[in-house]
User: Fold this.
Amino acid sequence: MEKFILTEVTREYLGVTLYQIKATRSFGNVKAGELGGWVEKAENLSQEDDAWVFGNARVSGNARVSGNARVSGNARVSGNARVFGDAWVFGDAEVFGDAEVFGDARVSGNARVFGDAHITSRAHIAWFSSVGSEYGTLTAYMTKQGVVEVTRGCFHGSIDTFEAAVQQTHGESRHGQEYMLLIQFIRLRFKGVIVENAS
Assistant:
C-alpha cells in the first residue's frame, strides 16, 4: 500500500504546480490522514520508507527524498538533488542542482547547497548567518570531488576563488576582515574531512 497520495490542493511555486501530500497509512512519526508538504509529482518522495515532506517544505523537479530523510519548515529541494538516509533539510534551507545530502547530515537556516555538493554528515557543511554588507548567509560544503565550495549571495565557487573575490571586492575593510576570518575557520573545519560515497 502506498504511504501517501497527492491531494487536489495545489499551489504555484516559480511557475510549477505543487501538490500537498497526505499520508494514507501511519509510518515513522507520521499518522494516517496527516497532511504533509508540497511535491511536484509522486516521484519526488519515496513510497517505500519513512521519508516525509512536512509543513511548507517543497520538493520539485527531479529531486528525490527517500530513506528516513525529512524535509520541513520552508525548505526547498529541487533540480536533481537527492536527500536520503537520515538526512534532514529544514528551516529556509535550499538544496538543488545535483547535490546529495544523506547519512546523518543536517542542512538548515538559510543554507544554500547545490552543484556537486556531497554532504554525508554534519562534518561536511557549515553556514554562517548575518554575514557581509547584506547580512546574508555564507554556506560552505564538500563536493563529490572533495573540494570545499562556498555560496554567498550570487557567489558560488571554491574556497580559493571566494578568497580572491573577497580580497578584490572588500580588501581590508571590516567586511573583508570578517570574511577572511570565516575563510580561515572554514579551512580549519574542513581540513582532513573525507568524502564518503553514497552507495
Summary: Residues 174-190 form the longest helix (17 residues). The mean pLDDT is 93. The helical segments are 159-170, 174-190. The longest strand covers residues 4-13.
